[in-house]
């Protein structure tokens, strides 16, 4: 979710048009940071602080979305993100050393809060305006995410190599800035009363905790790819960075195609959400185990298998991720939380917080396991984490359904006895 996300390679000059926009901008900014005297550890902390600030921002803004206002939060988030993106492009002019490093931390942290505001308000507003088609709308939005990943690399890479460091950031920032007046004009203002409910009450529902665990495993898996997949592919199959970027399309394209279909299906058949989430989680785990493949399978690494598993993971991510947000909304209603914008804001904030936690965990832990063991073992462990989350959610849902059936049987028994008498 991070517009300046994680790095996958360290050779920006090699076939840049095939790298993702996130890779391109991240490589540019990291190269600038190293040039300005920042160590690799400091560079990692600069980009790691984004996830932490995004987590905190999602929770705080989700809790007070009614007091702030959804429209204002979205517009303000876009404005802040656009300004920070432009400032990040101008940081190359700052003096090297502590001043540059401090400015990097400040800009990244503020940008994370702005992005959290935009995403939290977007999710809440979507659920409020389209209460019966939440998954369909969110799934459709992922199409535009895919278009950005596909069109961003050639455009951003060309501008960087033609005009230098600042231009990609300035263009992206100005594009976000143009969206500010557009959203002010188009978006409706939503009035609501604050709720006394809290995140603790929402998280007291066991199913919500398990769904959040699923969300965490999804984002940590994507973060794991950012930190490890490129190096593994280049080392194992002798691929150039550009071809690694093409391989990553095997992940993004199936996800973009699956998301709107899964969204439409789960809105039409709401009872299928948990089943699709669990099935998607199992398929994702299988994909991770065969990605390396896992050492205990004794299967040699093959490029076609890697691409095939990325496609399966991309499709299964759509199966798993899209149903989670509307399902948490249903759980909130079952828990007795007030139906309204305040609850939707908390659900959005909770989703964003656990997604950010996974994006922080995935690259760090995945990178450490890959360094000390191997990519194959790291992928298998990541798959095992996703499998655990899917099985826990599936098992709890089955137990919950069985308890509901038994309760319904007990409630109907006195009526049958009375009728017989």
- Can you count the helices? 15
**Rounded mean pLDDT score:** 79
Q: What profile does the largest beta sheet have?
A: none
Any low-confidence stretches, pLDDT <50, length ≥5?
Answer: 1-21
Report the principal-axis shape.
Answer: globular
The number of E-state strands comes to 0
What gyration radius follows from the Cα positions, in whole Å?
22 Å
Named CATH architecture:
Up-down Bundle
What is the ordering of alpha helices and beta strands? HHHHHHHHHHHHHHH
How many discrete structural domains?
1
The percent range for helix content is: over 70%
CATH topology: Growth Hormone, Chain: A
CATH class: Mainly Alpha
Q: Which superfamily, in CATH terms, is the homologous superfamily?
A: MFS general substrate transporter like domains
């Amino acid at each position: 979710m991070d517009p300046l996300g994680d790095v996958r390679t360290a050779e920006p000059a090699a076939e840049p048009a095939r790298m993702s926009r996130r890779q391109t901008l991240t490589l540019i900014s990291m190269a600038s940071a190293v040039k300005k005297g920042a160590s690799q550890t400091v560079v990692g902390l600069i980009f790691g602080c984004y996830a932490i600030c995004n987590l905190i921002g999602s929770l705080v803004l989700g809790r007070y979305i009614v007091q702030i206002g959804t429209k204002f939060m979205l517009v303000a988030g876009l404005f802040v993100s656009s300004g920070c993106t432009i400032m990040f492009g101008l940081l190359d002019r700052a003096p090297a050393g502590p001043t540059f490093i401090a400015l990097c931390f400040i800009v990244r942290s503020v940008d994370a809060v702005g992005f959290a505001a935009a995403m939290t308000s977007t999710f809440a507003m979507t659920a409020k305006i389209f209460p019966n088609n939440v998954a369909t709308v969110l799934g459709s939005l992922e199409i535009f995410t895919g278009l950005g990943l596909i069109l961003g690399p050639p455009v951003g890479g060309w501008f960087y190599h033609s005009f230098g460091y600042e231009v990609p950031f300035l263009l992206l920032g100005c594009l976000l800035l143009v969206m500010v007046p557009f959203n002010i004009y188009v978006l409706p203002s939503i009035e609501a009363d604050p709720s006394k409910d809290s995140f603790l009450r929402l998280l007291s529902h066991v199913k919500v905790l398990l769904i959040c665990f699923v969300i965490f495993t999804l984002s940590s898996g994507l973060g794991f790819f950012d930190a490890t997949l490129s190096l593994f592919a280049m080392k194992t199959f002798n691929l150039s960075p550009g071809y690694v970027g093409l391989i990553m399309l095997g992940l993004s394209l199936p996800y973009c195609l699956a998301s709107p279909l899964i969204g439409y299906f789960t809105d039409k058949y709401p009872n299928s959400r948990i089943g699709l989430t669990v099935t998607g989680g199992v398929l994702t785990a299988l994909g991770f185990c065969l990605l390396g493949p896992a050492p205990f399978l004794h299967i040699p690494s093959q490029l076609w298998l890697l691409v095939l598993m990325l496609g399966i993971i991309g499709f299964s991510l759509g199966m798993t991720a899209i149903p989670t947000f509307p399902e948490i909304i249903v759980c909130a209603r079952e828990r007795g939380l007030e139906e309204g914008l305040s609850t939707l804001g908390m659900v959005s904030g909770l989703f964003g917080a656990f997604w950010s936690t996974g994006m922080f965990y995935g690259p760090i832990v995945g990178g450490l396991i890959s360094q000390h063991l191997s990519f194959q073992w790291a992928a298998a462990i990541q798959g095992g984490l996703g499998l655990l989350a899917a099985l826990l959610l599936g098992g709890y849902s089955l137990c919950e359904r069985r308890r509901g059936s038994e309760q319904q049987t007990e409630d109907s028994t006195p009526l049958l006895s009375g009728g017989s008498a």
